[in-house]
């Protein structure tokens, strides 16, 4: 399974890019998973529902299954956030995992950058950045506009040797 990060600061367009890129990757026959890191408390369950009530009562994990999907909620209960490698090990087999977040990880990544946000560049300080998407970088580096989905798609397939 290949791993590619989509890294950048909040508001740069990472989620929108993934949303637009995923159908292209899937159309090519790839099985794609996404790992999304959030720095906020995430609630995927509805308060008052049975699975939410089970967690509130002290369950460390609740697996909710339905005819269309299942989800596993694991309470950290004060433990440290798991490392990316630990999360990747929990995924079902797939061809490609796109990672949104974990911008300081040591995995290959594409940097999504917008000058208007006033945030620093991840590259050249991060040798794992393969290309910049968005505003042009100040020094030579592969670069694609965020709307150039054909070129981004081709770059991913070529770079990760997935053709």
TrEMBL record:
A GO molecular-function annotation: GTP binding
One Pfam assignment: MobB
InterPro entries for the chain: MGD_biosynthesis_adapter, MobB_dom, P-loop_NTPase
Gene3D superfamilies: P-loop containing nucleotide triphosphate hydrolases
Domain Molybdopterin-guanine dinucleotide biosynthesis protein B (MobB): 3-134
GO BP terms, alphabetized: Mo-molybdopterin cofactor biosynthetic process
SUPFAM superfamilies to which the protein is assigned, alphabetical: P-loop containing nucleoside triphosphate hydrolases (SSF52540)
Domain of life: Bacteria
PANTHER family: MOLYBDOPTERIN-GUANINE DINUCLEOTIDE BIOSYNTHESIS ADAPTER PROTEIN (PTHR40072:SF1), MOLYBDOPTERIN-GUANINE DINUCLEOTIDE BIOSYNTHESIS ADAPTER PROTEIN-RELATED (PTHR40072)
Name of the protein in its database record: Molybdopterin-guanine dinucleotide biosynthesis protein B
Organism: Parasulfuritortus cantonensis
């Amino acid at each position: 399974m290949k791993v590619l990060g989509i890294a950048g600061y909040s508001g740069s367009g990472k989620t929108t890019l993934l949303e637009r890129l995923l159908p292209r990757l899937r159309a090519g026959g790839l099985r794609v998973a996404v790992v999304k890191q959030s720095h906020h408390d995430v609630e995927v369950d509805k308060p008052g529902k049975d699975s939410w009530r089970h967690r509130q009562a002290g369950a460390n994990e609740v697996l909710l299954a339905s005819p269309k999907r299942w989800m596993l909620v694991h309470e950290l209960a004060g433990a440290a956030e798991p490392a990316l490698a630990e999360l990747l090990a929990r995924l079902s087999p797939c061809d490609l995992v796109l990672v949104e977040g974990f911008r300081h990880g040591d995995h290959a990544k594409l940097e999504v950058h917008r000058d208007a946000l006033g945030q620093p560049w991840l590259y050249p300080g991060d040798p794992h950045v393969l290309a910049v998407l968005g505003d042009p970088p100040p020094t030579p580096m592969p670069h694609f506009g965020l709307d150039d989905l054909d070129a981004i798609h081709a770059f991913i397939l070529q770079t990760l040797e997935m053709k």
